[in-house]
Amino acid sequence: MAAILLVSVRLMTRRSVLLLAVLTVPAPARAQVVTWNIDPGHTSTQFAVRHMVVATVRGVFDGPTGTVLFDPKDIPGTLKVDATFKTASIDTRNRERDADLRSPQFLDVAKFPTMKFLSKRVTAAAPGHFAVAGDLTLRGVTHEVVLDVEGPTAPVKDLDGRMRAGAAMTTTISRRMWGLQYNVLLEAGGAVVGDEVKVQIDLEFTRK
Predict the structure, then answer these.
(1) Statement: residue 118 has pLDDT above 60
(2) Which of 71, 128, 180, 186 has the most CB atoms lying inside 10 A of its own CB?
(3) pLDDT at 72
(4) Where are the domains positioned within the chain?
(5) Predicted local confidence at residue 51, as pLDDT
(6) Is 184 left (phi over 0), alpha (psi -120 to 50) or beta?
(7) Contact 170, 147 (CB under 8 A)
(8) Is 108 helix (H, G, I), strand (E, B) or coil?
(9) Burial 25-34 (b: 16+ CB within 10 A, else e)
């Protein structure tokens, strides 16, 4: 009987040690995810669209603002991007054209002052590149877009002691999918404003 009790005690002790070891093992993926704040002053959002078939008009938006979360050891499994853009900040270096773009015919900034991108999933592509799929909400309409992302870069410390990193993102969208339908057809064929909009975002983000 004593031998049976001794064996039982040993088994219980081993199980307790094993359970304690499991509970004390850190969860590296969760522990290493870091939140970065997008620095709008050092971030560039550019777009390009064809004009009257023969030329390309380029413009910019301020910002965006928002956050980037990731673990550099597991970017596909942890990367999250939450970015908000002010639509009224659109600037194509032409005052009359910018007024049209802010009007209800296009962005309708009075009714929809922001557009937002929220990532949903990430797929590894070429080395240092990722395909980031997410929802883009513009004019109250949401569609999925896929960003080709280069980065994030290795972090560096700035003169104020904050850590900085960056990433470059590109995509092409169809403006009509978000209700930007206005256009005028040309007599020779084609339209005044192209449908495809090429977007490039150069993000810089910081943390303490």
Answers:
(1) yes
(2) 180
(3) 92
(4) 31-207
(5) 67
(6) beta
(7) yes
(8) coil
(9) eeeeeeeebe
3-class secondary structure, 90: coil
Question: Could you tell me the two tokens for 201?
Answer: 């975002």
Judge whether 194 and 172 are in contact, CB under 8 Å.
no
CB count within 10 Å of CB 19 equals 10
Task: Write out the two tokens for 80.
Answer: 């999250």
**Span 130-154, pLDDT tens digits:** 999 999 999 999 999 999 999 999 9
Beta strands (DSSP E) in 87-140 are 114-124, 129-138
Percent of the chain predicted with pLDDT > 90 = 67
* Token code pair at residue 19: 């359970």
Residue type, 193: V
Structure tokens, 16: 């307790």
Residue pointed to by tokens 């090429």: 198
Residue 181 CB partners (closer than 8 Å, separation 6+)? none
Q: Within 10 A of 136 (CB to CB), how many other CB atoms are there? A: 21
* Angle, vertex CA 59, rays to CA 146 and CA 194, nearest 5: 70
3-state secondary structure 145-191: EEEEEECCCCCEECCCCCEEEEEEEEEEEEHHHHCCCCCCECCCCCE
Helix or strand holding residue 99 (H, E): helix 95-102
- Do 63 and 40 form a contact (C-beta atoms < 8 A)? yes
CATH of span 31-207: 2.40.128.110
